[in-house]
Amino acid sequence: MSLEQRFEDAAERVKTLTKRPTDLELLELYALFKQATVGDVNTGRPGMFDLKGKAKWDMWNNKKGTSKEEAMEAYIKLVDKLLEMYKDEEEEEE
């Protein structure tokens, strides 16, 4: 399976999480996905009243210079980690 296929698979698998990741984990997922699909941030930073937009932009901007391939690999690893973490928590609850 190619890196792109593994990345697309991870993007689908992350949607199967039954527990919501933390805000920080969601921001990291967002930033890695954007870096992998768009590249370096290509928009202006949102205004001061758009707190969510600024947080997303800042996290993405922190990935500046990361290659598409590196971002894809990091995204795949993060999805695998989240699936494993939240799977374990669900099993413990049962």
From TrEMBL:
Every ACB domain range: 3-88
GO biological processes: fatty acid metabolic process; lipid storage
Keyword Nucleotidyltransferase part of the UniProt annotation: no
Keywords from the UniProt entry: Lipid-binding
InterPro entries the record matches: Acyl-CoA-binding_protein (IPR000582), Acyl-CoA-binding_sf (IPR035984), FERM/acyl-CoA-bd_prot_sf (IPR014352)
CDD domains, per database record: ACBP
Protein name per the record: ACB domain-containing protein
Coiled coil: none
UniProt keyword Lipoprotein, yes or no: no
Gene name as annotated: 100117027
GO MF entry, a single one: fatty-acyl-CoA binding
